Every structure is written in C-alpha cells, then in structure tokens.
Amino acid sequence: FKALNLRYYESACNFILVDFGMDSDIPYNYLLRKGIIVRPVKNYGLPTSLRITVGTQEQNEKLIRAIKEFLGHGDS
C-alpha cells in the first residue's frame, strides 16, 4: 500500500485498514464489482478507510491489481 501512496494502519491481526483519502463507498463499490469483498469502517469513525482481510497469495494479488486499476496505475 505504501508503493501506491495509500495510508495504512499496521496491525498484528489478519486485516489491514487502508485509507483511500476519499469516501470509502467509492473504492468499496469498485472492489465489490470486481468480486472482492472488503468492509467499510465508517461506523468506527473512519469514513475514508476500508478493512481488508489478508487472504491467500492469489486473493491478495487480485486485490492489489484491482486497487492499482482503481487508482489508475494499470499494470504497474
């Protein structure tokens, strides 16, 4: 997430909070359309962040590709 210039919160849990710097509904809906389920955390006072559970390597790679596409980074 650092390489994508996204703020994130380090965790000892099986999830990461990622701050997209915009209403979290926008990346949430984009990822959902790509078949990726994440959790908005607006109800915890984090309106621009999503909770992303660590998955398998394949799932994590799919997530990163989708976030890059969302941010306009393409295949970089």
Give a written overview of the molecule.
The protein starts with 6 loop residues before the first strand and ends in a 5-residue tail after the last helix. The chain has two helices and four strands; from the N terminus they run ββαββα. The chain has helices at residues 25-33, 57-71, and strands spanning 7-9, 15-19, 39-41, 46-53. Helices cover 32% and strands 25% of the residues. It has a single domain, classed as Aspartate Aminotransferase, domain 1 (Alpha-Beta Complex).
Structural classification: alpha+beta
Q: How many distinct domains?
A: 1
CATH topology grouping: Aspartate Aminotransferase, domain 1
Order of strands side by side in the largest beta sheet?
A: 1-2-4-3
Tell me the series of helices and strands, N- to C-terminal: EEHEEH
Strand content: 25-35%
In total, the number of strands is 4
At the first level of CATH, what is the class? Alpha Beta
Determine the oligomeric state from the structure. Answer: single chain
- Give the fraction of residues assigned to helices: 25-40%
First-to-last CA distance: 13 Å
Question: What best-fitting shape do the alpha-carbon axes yield?
Answer: globular
Quote the average pLDDT. Answer: 90
For the sheet with most strands, the description reads: 4 strands, antiparallel
Number of helical regions: 2
CATH architecture: Alpha-Beta Complex
User: Which residues form runs of ≥5 with pLDDT under 50?
Assistant: none
Domain Aminotransferase class I/classII large: 4-67
Keywords: Aminotransferase, Pyridoxal phosphate, Transferase
GO molecular function, one term: transaminase activity
Organism: candidate division WOR-3 bacterium
